[in-house]
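Submission sheet (multi-component)
Chains listed below:
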Amino acid sequence: MSTPDSELDRHLQALFGGLDTRPDFDARLMTRLRAESQTEANERAMRAEQERARYRRAVLELQSWRRSMLRLLTLDTLGIGLLLVVAVVAAWPHVSGNVTDLSRQYGPYIAMLLGILIATVPLLGMWAEQTRRPIRLL
Amino acid sequence: MELVRAERRDEAIALLLPAFRRKVFGLAYSFLRDREAAEDVTQEVFIKVWRALPGFDGRASMSTWIYTIARNASLSALRGRRPQSSLSDPGVMEAAESIDPVPPADVIVDRAAILRLIDQLPAKQRQVIMLFYMEGQSHEEVATMLGMPVGTVKTLLHRARARLSAAAAK
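Outcome: structure written.
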């Protein structure tokens, strides 16, 4: 190809062989990289803060939903209990003598069990709320 | 790669910089023909490399990857600037004088004339001839930098040299 000592080679070598960046190039680049690094760290911190805020909001929403469910459950149980009492009172005159005798014998126990059931449901709900696993979001 | 995996990007860049700074600058300069713009692009390239290092998977070699970033950045810069750039900027002559500090007056004239001739070459030939003489006359290195086969580099170089010789002989 080219002869090393040719005039053209010599000129081209002289023209382009020494091309380089200015001496302060590395220092300028490192300064920019440090600034980039700082910006990146700030952005990361901001993203993490946003993520924490999103998590807190989601936990609060979930807790609020669970409390609503618990209230609903308590009201439901009370309603069911009330309906049972109404049903028993309404049906009482029509039941046979045997049932009346039985109810006289076991009535207090049945009433006590019903009371315990109505009282237990909200207590169970509260216990479940307190002993639940920590809320994990995506 | 170890430094990249360990997320020690600053140290990785400190190692890459001496190995690739001049090559990336030369590549950018061969596209842009403007020293200031080529330095700016070189800075951008290393910042892009620094940002993208965690995603570098090693499928391509590091040099191929860096040269691809450099070519794309140079082309973007080239699209965004005025077209009438010329190699005959003072930086090239200064660089030449740093190698050959006190050239005779006729040599200075010759070099300025050669720069004008190189300016008139087709873009690919101009790039090849610049990088070939910048990179210690290695066809392989120029081919990697420009992302073209070695045979193409040889052909382009041969044509560029023939044109320059013919023009210089006139």
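Remark: The CA atoms of residues 28 and 34 of chain A lie 10 Å apart.
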